Amino acid sequence: MDFNYENCIKEGLKNLTITSAVKNKNEEEYFKEFMQQDETGVNILKRLSGNDLPTFYIPQITEEVNIFKAQLRAEARGRFFERELSRLLTSEELKYMWSLLQEHHTSLNNFIHNQYINYKSFIQVKQKLSDKYKSFFNPSIFLQLQDSNIKGYLSIDTFFNYIMKKIWIDQTRNGLSQYDSSGCGYLSEADFEAYILDLIPTLTQLKKLEKMFYSFYSCMVVRKFFFYLDPLRTGKIRIIDILSCGFLDELLE
């Protein structure tokens, strides 16, 4: 008897009975049945159910939403800024560190007028200072700032200027962050204008500027920053961009 493939298929289809429950199953139900066959699949299904999914968006806390949460957030931010400022070196602490650097400097020859310090003396100065200074006395900083012409030696002027610049950036970032109404690392035009208005009285070159012109000056400064730092016209600029662009250095000179 010759084997007929088509007849075999027809006989098989006749004997196949499909219940109504199976007919109504969709792809998602088949997937769930398959995943429930082992413990790993069950755990994945629990995560997909939405119970363990993280929150992707948290609305901004304002006094209109919740007065208590808004006040708590403001108090927490204030304490955070105070703690960050307390970690910065004061002028007296900088003077003390400078005196130690001068005591441990190494005289190379009469033709080099800059004062240098080698790594051994660098560590000795570190050991005489408190933990507040430790972040500046890392081996990586010594290697990055060492003189390219005199290997193994670091100019104490270069090192001290680096510390001063780092402290200035931290202070300025802290000051800008206090005007960040959203707390997301951005400043809106209103936030940045408020910062400039509070900054104007502290600028020596603007002491003779009358208060009636403060708004005009702040508007001009804000327009310049947003023109260059907000090319997509989103209405906000990142604090880190303000610090890195160099415009703020020109403003404070």
Automatic annotation (TrEMBL):
It comes from the Eukaryota. Coiled coil: none annotated. GO terms for cellular component: centrosome; cytoplasm; spindle. It is found in: Cytoplasm. One of its GO terms (biological process) is microtubule cytoskeleton organization. Keywords: Cytoplasm. Its main location: cytoplasm. PANTHER family: SERINE/THREONINE-PROTEIN PHOSPHATASE 2A REGULATORY SUBUNIT B'' SUBUNIT GAMMA (PTHR12085), SERINE_THREONINE-PROTEIN PHOSPHATASE 2A REGULATORY SUBUNIT B'' SUBUNIT GAMMA (PTHR12085:SF3). This is Serine/threonine-protein phosphatase 2A regulatory subunit B'' subunit gamma-like.
